[in-house]
Design goal:
Blueprint lengths: L16 H4 L1 E8 L2 E8 L2 E6 L2 E5 L4 H12 L6 E6 L5 H7 L4 E8 L2 H8 L7 H4 L4 E5 L2 H6 L6 E6 L19 H10 E11 L4 H11 L3 E9 L2 E11 L1
Bound molecules: S-adenosylmethionine.
Organism: Saccharopolyspora kobensis
Keywords: Polyamine biosynthesis
InterPro entries: SAM-dependent_MTases_sf (IPR029063)
Length: 237
Amino acid sequence: MMIVKPMREPVSGLVNVAAMAELVARGESERGELALLRRDDVLELRVNGVFVMDTAHTATERELATATLRAVGAARLRVLIGGLGLGFTLREVLADPRVEEAHVVEIEPDLLTWHRDGLVPHTVAAVRDERVRWHLGDVAEVLAAQPPDHFDVVLLDVDNGPDFLVYDANSAIYRGEFLARSAEKLTSGGTLAIWSADTSPALRAALHEVFGNCEELAIPVRLGRHETTYHLFLAVR
Ligand SMILES: C[S@@+](CC[C@H](N)C(=O)[O-])C[C@H]1O[C@@H](n2cnc3c(N)ncnc32)[C@H](O)[C@@H]1O
């Protein structure tokens, strides 16, 4: 399918961005190439040459945390975050004093190393926060290994959404089996939230099927001269 929607797109446009940018760090894994680039003061994360996100436009990554935590009434929170990225969702989670543990699942070992080495100064304090529990691996596998009724909040931002995958294997994350597994790991009243660059009737239906409810938040975003809308899908156990 051809992708027509600009997603987490760099302001200066895609053409020659990599050429204009300074390479801060580069890694390789079985999934391909990971690169951290700098343009002026903006850091940018790319996977196999594809733009994933940058530090200039992080409102919806932060909103993934704030909107979801706002909706959860518990006095103490244990949160799981799927996908560290540049750490903005994590930083926002940790800003909530109710959070006692923030479990972060990241599949790319080099990205963890870069954060620990302080290459992403915007979120360095969050990465070093003692409430963080690190899991290196696939969020589907890590979540499956957790005890039931364990998390008050599960936040997933591992792709640009169900229709714009960073890794093909992630398609399972948006389907019934994994969503049901996530529901099992949530406490009663706990919330699963998923970031997406676009609306997704299929994801909404799958969440309804598993949880019996789904709220979709459409958040307007300005990316340089572009205006677009990103989406958060929330479902309560
Ligand atoms: C869009 S970024 C996350 C952005 C993050 N919300 C932030 O605020 O910076 C996606 C992250 O998910 C990671 N990722 C992709 N697939 C994954 C998987 N199956 N399990 C764990 N992490 C994954 C990528 O390596 C990347 O770091």
